[in-house]
Amino acid sequence: MRKYKHILAVVEPGSEKNTALTRALEIASFSPDTRITAMIAMYDFSAELTSVLDVQTQLDLKNKLVAAHEQMIEQAVGKLNAEHSDIDCKIVWQRSVTRAIVDEINAGDYDLLIKVADNHDLTKKLLYTPLDWKLLRYSPIPVIIAKEHSWTPGANILVAINFDDEDLNAQRLMNLRLLRHAQQISTLTGGTIHLVNAAVPITPSTLVEIPGFSPDLYSEAVYNQSSDKLVLFAKKHRIPESNCHICIGQPDDVIYHQAKKLNANFILIGNSARKGVVGNIIGNVCEQITDDVGCDIMVISKNLR
Protein backbone atom coordinates (compact mmCIF):
# COMPACT_ATOMS: atom_id res chain seq x y z
CA MET A 1 0.00 0.00 0.00
CA ARG A 2 1.40 3.37 -1.03
CA LYS A 3 1.85 6.20 1.46
CA TYR A 4 1.94 9.93 0.95
CA LYS A 5 5.34 11.09 2.18
CA HIS A 6 5.30 14.79 1.29
CA ILE A 7 2.11 16.81 0.74
CA LEU A 8 1.93 20.28 -0.80
CA ALA A 9 -1.10 22.16 0.54
CA VAL A 10 -1.98 25.41 -1.24
CA VAL A 11 -3.22 27.92 1.34
CA GLU A 12 -5.76 30.51 0.20
CA PRO A 13 -4.87 34.02 1.48
CA GLY A 14 -7.66 35.43 3.65
CA SER A 15 -9.52 32.12 3.96
CA GLU A 16 -10.65 31.20 7.47
CA LYS A 17 -11.35 27.50 6.88
CA ASN A 18 -8.10 26.47 5.12
CA THR A 19 -9.66 23.28 3.79
CA ALA A 20 -6.57 22.18 1.85
CA LEU A 21 -4.38 22.31 4.96
CA THR A 22 -7.08 20.52 6.96
CA ARG A 23 -7.11 17.67 4.42
CA ALA A 24 -3.33 17.45 4.50
CA LEU A 25 -3.36 17.17 8.29
CA GLU A 26 -6.08 14.51 8.19
CA ILE A 27 -4.01 12.40 5.79
CA ALA A 28 -0.80 12.98 7.74
CA SER A 29 -2.47 11.94 11.00
CA PHE A 30 -2.42 8.33 9.76
CA SER A 31 1.26 8.46 8.85
CA PRO A 32 3.60 10.10 11.39
CA ASP A 33 6.46 10.41 8.89
CA THR A 34 4.42 12.41 6.36
CA ARG A 35 5.73 15.92 5.74
CA ILE A 36 3.50 18.88 4.88
CA THR A 37 4.46 22.07 3.09
CA ALA A 38 1.89 24.86 3.36
CA MET A 39 2.40 27.22 0.43
CA ILE A 40 1.08 30.59 -0.69
CA ALA A 41 1.87 31.76 -4.23
CA MET A 42 1.59 35.54 -4.32
CA TYR A 43 2.49 38.66 -6.27
CA ASP A 44 1.75 42.34 -5.87
CA PHE A 45 2.29 44.64 -8.83
CA SER A 46 2.51 47.65 -6.51
CA ALA A 47 5.99 46.43 -5.57
CA GLU A 48 7.12 47.16 -9.14
CA LEU A 49 6.18 50.82 -9.38
CA THR A 50 9.62 51.71 -10.64
CA SER A 51 8.62 55.21 -11.65
CA VAL A 52 7.54 55.98 -8.07
CA LEU A 53 9.57 53.73 -5.77
CA ASP A 54 13.31 53.20 -5.64
CA VAL A 55 14.77 49.68 -5.69
CA GLN A 56 15.29 49.45 -1.92
CA THR A 57 11.76 50.61 -1.21
CA GLN A 58 10.42 48.01 -3.62
CA LEU A 59 12.45 45.32 -1.87
CA ASP A 60 11.27 46.44 1.56
CA LEU A 61 7.64 46.38 0.39
CA LYS A 62 8.08 42.89 -1.03
CA ASN A 63 9.68 41.63 2.19
CA LYS A 64 6.84 43.09 4.27
CA LEU A 65 4.23 41.38 2.07
CA VAL A 66 6.03 38.05 2.25
CA ALA A 67 6.40 38.32 6.04
CA ALA A 68 2.68 39.11 6.40
CA HIS A 69 1.77 36.00 4.41
CA GLU A 70 4.20 33.85 6.40
CA GLN A 71 2.43 35.01 9.55
CA MET A 72 -0.89 34.21 7.88
CA ILE A 73 0.15 30.58 7.32
CA GLU A 74 1.45 30.24 10.88
CA GLN A 75 -1.86 31.54 12.22
CA ALA A 76 -3.76 29.11 9.99
CA VAL A 77 -1.74 26.19 11.37
CA GLY A 78 -2.29 27.46 14.90
CA LYS A 79 -6.08 27.75 14.46
CA LEU A 80 -6.23 24.12 13.35
CA ASN A 81 -4.48 23.06 16.56
CA ALA A 82 -2.22 20.91 14.43
CA GLU A 83 -0.40 18.24 16.39
CA HIS A 84 1.60 17.39 13.30
CA SER A 85 4.91 19.11 13.89
CA ASP A 86 6.55 18.58 10.50
CA ILE A 87 4.92 21.47 8.65
CA ASP A 88 7.00 23.82 6.51
CA CYS A 89 5.69 27.23 5.49
CA LYS A 90 6.66 28.59 2.10
CA ILE A 91 5.85 31.84 0.31
CA VAL A 92 6.59 31.96 -3.41
CA TRP A 93 6.78 35.32 -5.19
CA GLN A 94 5.55 34.64 -8.72
CA ARG A 95 3.17 36.34 -11.14
CA SER A 96 1.70 33.04 -12.32
CA VAL A 97 0.20 31.02 -9.47
CA THR A 98 0.05 27.92 -11.67
CA ARG A 99 3.72 28.18 -12.62
CA ALA A 100 4.71 28.79 -9.01
CA ILE A 101 2.93 25.65 -7.83
CA VAL A 102 4.13 23.42 -10.67
CA ASP A 103 7.71 24.69 -10.32
CA GLU A 104 7.60 23.97 -6.59
CA ILE A 105 6.38 20.43 -7.29
CA ASN A 106 9.13 19.82 -9.85
CA ALA A 107 11.80 21.21 -7.53
CA GLY A 108 10.68 19.14 -4.53
CA ASP A 109 9.89 15.57 -3.64
CA TYR A 110 6.12 15.95 -3.34
CA ASP A 111 3.75 13.09 -4.08
CA LEU A 112 0.38 14.80 -3.46
CA LEU A 113 -1.03 18.30 -4.12
CA ILE A 114 -4.11 19.56 -2.27
CA LYS A 115 -6.02 22.71 -3.17
CA VAL A 116 -9.43 23.93 -2.09
CA ALA A 117 -12.04 24.07 -4.86
CA ASP A 118 -12.86 27.41 -6.47
CA ASN A 119 -16.28 28.33 -7.76
CA HIS A 120 -16.43 29.45 -11.39
CA ASP A 121 -19.45 30.64 -13.31
CA LEU A 122 -19.84 29.86 -17.01
CA THR A 123 -18.75 33.33 -18.16
CA LYS A 124 -15.46 33.13 -16.28
CA LYS A 125 -14.77 29.65 -17.64
CA LEU A 126 -15.17 30.90 -21.19
CA LEU A 127 -12.98 33.97 -20.65
CA TYR A 128 -10.07 32.23 -18.95
CA THR A 129 -8.93 28.84 -17.73
CA PRO A 130 -9.59 28.50 -13.96
CA LEU A 131 -6.62 27.81 -11.69
CA ASP A 132 -8.12 24.45 -10.66
CA TRP A 133 -8.24 23.33 -14.29
CA LYS A 134 -4.67 24.46 -14.96
CA LEU A 135 -3.37 22.48 -12.01
CA LEU A 136 -5.28 19.39 -13.10
CA ARG A 137 -3.69 19.67 -16.54
CA TYR A 138 -0.12 20.50 -15.60
CA SER A 139 0.51 18.93 -12.20
CA PRO A 140 2.93 15.98 -12.47
CA ILE A 141 1.55 14.48 -9.22
CA PRO A 142 -1.99 13.53 -8.09
CA VAL A 143 -4.19 16.50 -7.18
CA ILE A 144 -6.95 16.60 -4.59
CA ILE A 145 -9.51 19.35 -5.14
CA ALA A 146 -10.95 19.65 -1.65
CA LYS A 147 -14.48 20.77 -0.87
CA GLU A 148 -15.58 22.34 2.39
CA HIS A 149 -17.12 19.27 3.99
CA SER A 150 -16.04 16.79 6.63
CA TRP A 151 -14.65 13.38 5.79
CA THR A 152 -17.20 10.90 7.04
CA PRO A 153 -15.66 7.66 8.35
CA GLY A 154 -16.86 4.68 6.35
CA ALA A 155 -18.29 6.79 3.51
CA ASN A 156 -18.28 5.64 -0.10
CA ILE A 157 -15.32 6.21 -2.42
CA LEU A 158 -16.13 6.31 -6.14
CA VAL A 159 -13.50 5.34 -8.71
CA ALA A 160 -14.16 6.22 -12.37
CA ILE A 161 -12.77 3.35 -14.44
CA ASN A 162 -12.19 3.83 -18.17
CA PHE A 163 -12.06 1.15 -20.88
CA ASP A 164 -12.23 3.44 -23.94
CA ASP A 165 -8.57 4.45 -24.26
CA GLU A 166 -7.05 3.35 -27.55
CA ASP A 167 -3.75 2.78 -25.74
CA LEU A 168 -4.56 -0.37 -23.76
CA ASN A 169 -1.37 -0.23 -21.70
CA ALA A 170 -2.02 3.39 -20.70
CA GLN A 171 -5.63 2.49 -19.91
CA ARG A 172 -4.62 -0.45 -17.72
CA LEU A 173 -1.98 1.60 -15.90
CA MET A 174 -4.36 4.47 -15.22
CA ASN A 175 -7.08 2.17 -13.84
CA LEU A 176 -4.55 0.52 -11.53
CA ARG A 177 -3.22 3.87 -10.34
CA LEU A 178 -6.73 5.07 -9.54
CA LEU A 179 -7.49 1.89 -7.62
CA ARG A 180 -4.24 2.03 -5.63
CA HIS A 181 -4.92 5.59 -4.53
CA ALA A 182 -8.53 4.66 -3.71
CA GLN A 183 -7.26 1.83 -1.52
CA GLN A 184 -5.03 4.28 0.32
CA ILE A 185 -7.92 6.71 0.87
CA SER A 186 -10.06 3.77 1.98
CA THR A 187 -7.40 2.82 4.52
CA LEU A 188 -7.33 6.39 5.84
CA THR A 189 -11.10 6.88 6.07
CA GLY A 190 -12.45 3.34 6.40
CA GLY A 191 -14.46 4.00 3.24
CA THR A 192 -15.97 1.50 0.81
CA ILE A 193 -14.69 1.47 -2.77
CA HIS A 194 -17.20 1.55 -5.63
CA LEU A 195 -16.34 1.40 -9.32
CA VAL A 196 -18.24 3.29 -12.01
CA ASN A 197 -17.97 3.13 -15.78
CA ALA A 198 -19.85 5.16 -18.38
CA ALA A 199 -20.91 3.17 -21.41
CA VAL A 200 -21.12 5.71 -24.22
CA PRO A 201 -23.23 4.31 -27.09
CA ILE A 202 -21.65 6.16 -30.01
CA THR A 203 -23.29 4.56 -33.02
CA PRO A 204 -20.99 4.37 -36.10
CA SER A 205 -22.62 5.96 -39.14
CA THR A 206 -21.94 2.81 -41.18
CA LEU A 207 -24.16 0.75 -38.86
CA VAL A 208 -27.09 3.16 -39.12
CA GLU A 209 -27.39 2.43 -42.84
CA ILE A 210 -27.65 -1.33 -42.31
CA PRO A 211 -31.25 -2.58 -42.82
CA GLY A 212 -32.80 -3.77 -39.57
CA PHE A 213 -30.21 -2.04 -37.37
CA SER A 214 -31.55 -1.37 -33.86
CA PRO A 215 -29.97 1.43 -31.79
CA ASP A 216 -31.45 -0.11 -28.64
CA LEU A 217 -29.80 -3.47 -29.29
CA TYR A 218 -26.51 -1.73 -30.02
CA SER A 219 -26.70 0.25 -26.76
CA GLU A 220 -27.45 -2.97 -24.89
CA ALA A 221 -24.41 -4.63 -26.45
CA VAL A 222 -22.21 -1.69 -25.44
CA TYR A 223 -23.64 -1.86 -21.92
CA ASN A 224 -23.03 -5.61 -21.61
CA GLN A 225 -19.48 -5.33 -22.92
CA SER A 226 -18.64 -2.54 -20.44
CA SER A 227 -20.28 -4.50 -17.62
CA ASP A 228 -18.22 -7.61 -18.36
CA LYS A 229 -14.97 -5.60 -18.36
CA LEU A 230 -15.78 -3.81 -15.11
CA VAL A 231 -16.83 -6.98 -13.28
CA LEU A 232 -13.68 -8.77 -14.44
CA PHE A 233 -11.53 -5.85 -13.24
CA ALA A 234 -13.35 -5.85 -9.89
CA LYS A 235 -12.88 -9.59 -9.37
CA LYS A 236 -9.14 -9.31 -9.96
CA HIS A 237 -8.94 -6.76 -7.17
CA ARG A 238 -11.45 -8.35 -4.77
CA ILE A 239 -14.15 -5.73 -5.12
CA PRO A 240 -17.73 -7.06 -4.83
CA GLU A 241 -19.77 -7.11 -8.01
CA SER A 242 -22.48 -5.22 -6.10
CA ASN A 243 -20.05 -2.28 -5.94
CA CYS A 244 -19.77 -2.10 -9.73
CA HIS A 245 -21.95 0.48 -11.46
CA ILE A 246 -22.46 0.63 -15.22
CA CYS A 247 -24.50 3.47 -16.68
CA ILE A 248 -25.33 4.51 -20.22
CA GLY A 249 -24.40 8.13 -20.86
CA GLN A 250 -21.62 10.69 -20.97
CA PRO A 251 -18.88 10.25 -18.31
CA ASP A 252 -19.44 13.60 -16.56
CA ASP A 253 -23.18 12.98 -16.19
CA VAL A 254 -22.71 9.36 -15.11
CA ILE A 255 -20.06 10.17 -12.48
CA TYR A 256 -22.04 13.10 -11.09
CA HIS A 257 -25.31 11.16 -10.71
CA GLN A 258 -23.62 8.04 -9.34
CA ALA A 259 -21.69 10.08 -6.77
CA LYS A 260 -24.93 11.74 -5.70
CA LYS A 261 -26.75 8.39 -5.52
CA LEU A 262 -24.03 6.83 -3.37
CA ASN A 263 -23.50 10.02 -1.34
CA ALA A 264 -19.82 9.59 -2.14
CA ASN A 265 -17.26 11.28 0.06
CA PHE A 266 -14.48 11.02 -2.50
CA ILE A 267 -14.14 10.62 -6.28
CA LEU A 268 -11.04 9.44 -8.14
CA ILE A 269 -10.74 10.06 -11.85
CA GLY A 270 -8.08 10.04 -14.56
CA ASN A 271 -7.33 13.13 -16.61
CA SER A 272 -6.69 13.20 -20.35
CA ALA A 273 -4.95 16.57 -19.86
CA ARG A 274 -6.65 18.23 -22.82
CA LYS A 275 -5.01 21.58 -23.52
CA GLY A 276 -5.20 24.44 -25.98
CA VAL A 277 -8.33 26.08 -27.39
CA VAL A 278 -10.40 22.90 -27.17
CA GLY A 279 -9.47 22.48 -23.53
CA ASN A 280 -10.42 26.07 -22.73
CA ILE A 281 -13.86 25.63 -24.27
CA ILE A 282 -14.98 22.16 -23.20
CA GLY A 283 -12.42 21.17 -20.59
CA ASN A 284 -11.84 17.59 -19.45
CA VAL A 285 -14.35 15.30 -17.78
CA CYS A 286 -12.73 15.79 -14.38
CA GLU A 287 -12.85 19.57 -14.82
CA GLN A 288 -16.50 19.52 -15.82
CA ILE A 289 -17.58 17.75 -12.64
CA THR A 290 -15.26 19.63 -10.25
CA ASP A 291 -17.75 22.46 -9.73
CA ASP A 292 -20.82 20.19 -9.66
CA VAL A 293 -20.07 17.53 -7.06
CA GLY A 294 -20.02 18.30 -3.37
CA CYS A 295 -17.21 15.94 -2.41
CA ASP A 296 -13.43 15.84 -2.75
CA ILE A 297 -11.97 14.82 -6.11
CA MET A 298 -8.58 13.24 -6.70
CA VAL A 299 -7.34 13.63 -10.26
CA ILE A 300 -4.46 11.64 -11.69
CA SER A 301 -2.98 12.78 -15.00
CA LYS A 302 -1.59 10.64 -17.77
CA ASN A 303 1.53 12.76 -17.49
CA LEU A 304 2.18 11.52 -13.95
CA ARG A 305 5.88 11.54 -13.19
Q: How does the SSE layout of this entry go?
A:
Blueprint lengths: L5 E5 L8 H10 L6 E8 L12 H25 L7 E7 L3 H11 L4 E5 L5 H6 L3 H8 L4 E4 L9 E5 L7 H22 L2 E8 L5 H4 L6 H22 L7 E5 L2 H12 L3 E6 L4 H7 L2 H6 L5 E6 L4
How would you describe this protein?
- The chain is α/β, with parallel strands linked by helices and 305 residues long.
- The chain has two domains: 1-116, 3-Layer(aba) Sandwich (Rossmann fold), CATH 3.40.50.12370; 151-305, 3-Layer(aba) Sandwich (Rossmann fold).
- The protein contains eleven helices and ten strands.
- The protein has helices at residues 19-28, 55-79, 97-107, 122-127, 131-138, 168-189, 205-208, 215-236, 251-262, 276-282, 285-290; strands at 6-10, 35-42, 87-93, 112-116, 143-146, 156-160, 192-199, 244-248, 266-271, 296-301.
- It has a ten-stranded mixed sheet, sandwiched between helices.
- Helix 3 packs parallel to helix 5.
- The chain is elongated, with a radius of gyration of 22 Å.
- The model is unreliable at 275-283 (pLDDT under 50).
Number of domains: 2
Fraction in beta strands: 15-25%
**Shape estimate:** elongated
Name given to the CATH architecture of the largest domain: 3-Layer(aba) Sandwich
Radius of gyration: 22 Å
**Helicity range of the residues?**
40-55%
Count of individual helical segments: 11
What is the average per-residue confidence, as pLDDT, rounded to a whole number?
A: 81
User: Which residues form runs of ≥5 with pLDDT under 50?
Assistant: 275-283
Order of helices and strands: EHEHEHEHHEEHEHHEHEHHE
Distance between the termini: 18 Å
Structural class assignment: alpha/beta
Largest sheet: 10 strands, mixed
Enumerate the strands of the largest sheet in spatial order, edge to edge or round the barrel: 3-2-1-4-5-10-9-6-7-8
User: Could you tell me the number of beta strands?
Assistant: 10
CATH top-level class of the largest domain? Alpha Beta
**CATH topology type of the largest domain:** Rossmann fold
